[in-house]
Amino acid sequence: MLGLQQVKIMHTDKKSLILRCYAKKEGSQWVAVCIDLSLAAQADSCKEATEKLESMMLSYVDEALGVHSAYSKQLLSRKAPLSQIFFYYFASFLHWSKMCSNSEYGVTFMEKYPLQTA
To answer: Is 18 within a domain?
Structure first.
């Protein structure tokens, strides 16, 4: 099974950052990956893996814009390996073409998460 997600992070300066993510089951574990920040989380359930990844992304972006703001452009443009990017777009295509809708491939989803930095 797999899930796709686009996370929208809002900042106090009214700018937003769209982060592309997916989650898939590997053996007995779920792995959630953010292809735009090259971050990943692993857990026993899809929800737990997604929540862990969301927490990691929020912390990473907060640090990149706060403490390490001089390097924020570099930190926020850290891409995942090509194989993970390809998997994201392949899964997006399957969802778009309805090939995986309610099937063994799983379901896709899209959510937006607001973030207000201090």
So the answer is: yes
